[in-house]
Amino acid sequence: MTDQSTPTPPTTTFDSGIPAPEEDYSLTAGTDGPIALHDAYVVQKMQQFNRERVPERVVHAKGSGAHGYFEVTNDITRYTRASLFSEVGKRTEIIARFSQVAGEHGYPDTVRDPRGFSVKFYTEDGNWDLVGNNTPVFFMRDPAKFQHFIRSQKRLPDSGLRSNDMQWDFWTGSPESAHQVMILMSDHGTPASYATMNGYGSHTFSMENAAGEKVWVKYHFHADAGQHDFTDEEAGAHAGPDPDYLRRDLRDRIAEGDHPSWTLKIQVMPFEDAEGYRFNPFDVTKVWPHGDYPLIEVGRMVLDRNPDNFFAEIEQSAFSPSNIVPGLGLSPDKMLQGRIFSYHDTHLHRIGTNYQQLPVNASKAPVNSYNQDGAMRYAHSDGQPVYSPNSYGGPVSDTERGHDLTWSTEGGEIGRYAYVAHAEDDDFGQAGTLYRHVLSDEGREHAVTNIVGHVGDGVSPTIQRRALEYLTKIDAGLGAAVAKGLGVADGGEPAGADAPEPFGQAAGQGPAVDLRESETAGRA
Fold first, then answer.
1. Considering Cα of 152, then 285, then 22, then 459, what sign does the dihedral take?
2. What predicted TM-score, i.e. pTM, was given to this entire model?
3. Integer Cα distance of 82 and 327 in angstroms
4. Which end of the chain is more exposed for a tag (fewer CB within 10 A), N or C?
5. Tens-place pLDDT, residues 218-275
6. Residue (of 218, 317, 299, 310) closest to 261 by Cα position
7. Which residues are catalytically annotated?
8. What CA–CA distances, in Å, run from 241 to 110, 232, 250, 459?
9. Are 79 and 215 in contact (CB under 8 A)?
């Protein structure tokens, strides 16, 4: 990339040279309908992106994890018929993996970054994977932009170095990122321990009970030890001497019998509320205010056993949002729909065609499938027919137990649409509420300091100006405080910049962050 005064950029194309129709919106059936499989551009972007790195994960490369169990503590059968929630006291074996988003295998654990929070439940109806983060929102709402976002958080193509300019260029060009950026630039961006880090499904999901009644849900894991974060200074102090600090802390706690635990809670929205709700409830850049949909306790997750072999049990563990058991379902959230394809596809590439036969990924329930052969295939079905329909006793579908949890759409012409606008939809409102009403006075001070350090580190004057405009839309006081920290006089240029070329110059990671119960950030 050169200075922003460069000539008109070239047209984006497929790798075949064909002009691309759109970068920001997937092809959907109507404004809120499902993404079309024949959206070749989005599908090909995903497929190529999923194969960019070998052998570590493209994102969430550095992770830690452990085994444990989930125990139901409250009856929610009025909402779901899922077997793992069938009775109070029921236990289900699990494995959990916590991870960084942008850093590679050797990256310091305490560097500012969102954290992955994924749990595999080995249920009697197959594996359910709840694949989320330590934040209740995300940077974008359409998977067409995901690859661009991740690349902006990684490394420059010419130098192989990280660039804050690249990050702020993407964020300020994507206003829907404001809520997540404010969380990242708070102390929640630098958790002090995986054991004291909250987790979220982030997306809107669905449930169905035995009577066929459906609701929309959001999942929240609250650390029973309370949420604790590092300041930027504390995080930096650990990064050099002990780059595996969070991994070591988790393993030591479990080895010493101090078993980390989380309380799983859900928010429940009646199915019919979604259409008329004050903002789009399927927009993953938003939270549902707890005043509208209070938290309901479900159960307790405990991690009590470290892996015996890190590679076999943690590196080869594979989580996919497409693993949904009967009684649980998806939603019109476009980011979630994109992940349904992307995760399984990338595991096929990274670990192999038969990755679900690896012990850590294998279902505890019987597997009867017409899939066969492929590299590293181990389990098989003897002489079972390899086609369907057949007359020789091959497996048959169970439309009652295994039926899809669906919803209606308005239909309409297939096209590329933004989310349907609701009365109170906007990109900066919840981010401003987070800053003004959720963060403490100290948390706001830390957030300003963190942003000043990050946006002042190797970010070009043009992008700094855009960042100040972006932050001012979140909160005028925030914008003014950051401008003061950058030494920007009224109408002046940000201080200290020789207008570096953003591509070709390295920029540091910048300071760490602080977040206080971001899930409540939508509370008015």
1. negative
2. 0.88
3. 4
4. C
5. 999 999 999 999 999 999 999 999 999 999 999 999 999 999 999 999 999 999 999 9
6. 299
7. 60, 133
8. 11, 15, 17, 28
9. yes
